[in-house]
Please model this.
Amino acid sequence: MKLLLVDDNDRIRKMMRSIYSPHFDEIIECDNGESAVRAFEITNPDWVVMDIMMKNMNGIEATEKIIISHPDAKVIIVSQYNDETTIDAAKSAGAVGFVSKENLYKVIEVINKNNKEQK
Model:
C-alpha cells in the first residue's frame, strides 16, 4: 500500500512516518495542500493522511479537490482541533475519517476498519 502524508511540520511528518511505515510499502510526503493535490495525481496513493492547518491550501480544500477528481480516494484528516465544526468540515470535504493529533496511532485503526468493510 502507498500513503500520501501531508503536514507542514517536519517533526510531525517524521513522527507519523515512523508510526505508519510498518503498514505501508511507500510513503510520499508533502508539506502543504497544494503539493498534496499534485502528488495525488502523480502517485495515486491508497491512503492520504492530511493535516488541516497549512499554508497555500489547507487540508479541507485539498481534500475537496482530491475527492472531486477521485471520488474513491481515501483521506483521513488529522488535526489538533477536534471540535465538532472541524470534524463536520472534514466529513463534508469527503474524508473517510478524522483523527486527533493527540492519538495518531488511531489512523491505523481507521485504515484497518475501512479495509475490512471494503472486503
In short: The chain has a mean pLDDT of 95.
